[in-house]
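U., I forgot to send this yesterday:
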Amino acid sequence: MRTTSMNRAIQTNFSSRHKPTDCRTGAHCRSWLDCASHMHQAMTVTEPKSDVALRRILLATDFSSCSERALQYAVSVARHYDATLYLAHVVSAETPTAAPTTASRPALRRAEQEMANLLTSGVLRGVPHQVLLSTGVLWDCLQKIITENSVDLVVVGTHGRTGVRKLMLGSAAEEIFRKSPCPVLTVGPQVHHEAPSSIRFQQILYACDLTPAAERATAYALSLAREFRAQLTILHAISDTETTRSGRREAMRRNVVAQLQALLPAEPRAEYSTQLLAAFGPAPTVILDRARALGADLIVMGVRRTASFPGHLPPATTYQVVCEAPCPVFTVRTEETQA
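Result:
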């Protein structure tokens, strides 16, 4: 695959044919400062194929240290899948319908400089890439990019705000992984190690809630295990209620393991090995404890789309796991719409 040189990459990615587009109309803008955003477009969810094909990967970056770690994973995954990497940054508009104002100019200039620095750093060497700078509402702009480029995976870093700070500020990462029609790889604040140049997910933990809506997440978990020839642990957390404390725990555990077994192909697959676990306790605690015990390098979870934003107290299971996980979390949005 042809690789664009760094000098040429800067010229190409900031050329007129890659000018920002208005997130509302899709028209080319005369300059970065002409880009406005207010877009509502229905997204369609397609079932994944038998094997994951991540050919178009989108990194949503704010140039923070969290985004730097996410960039490392995005580049590594793109190399593994021989994928094109889209690097997107959105400069927030003052209101959803407002065109950029003079106040946006310094932020846009800083964003252009940050992107130029990234392109010349060498981190993207060998990875086909394209830069996308927009001004507008974060999710509206990202949704348009995902749709127009048929993105297969979004990668994002998060600061992991919780409690009152999250209630006040919300979570951009949570909004992305709850609304994205394609899977999202979130790199949380507890992921301290750098991604290897050649990614290897050898220990994959799939936290399965055993609902019909989890079918997409199951398909991705199995496909990732095949792709990386990984040890796949499928885990279900059982709520430790009064009913489960009355002597029925072992029977419930066996029943859950049987349901997990039903998720697997009838014929054993040589590409990966599996273990099935059922554990009692709060789901975030069960998932995080098991991830640490396994030394997991990837957690897979299904996630429901919530009906409202911003954040809430207490944090939802998926967001809590993302904030505290020692490894990236690969989320797949389900078809359900309730919180």
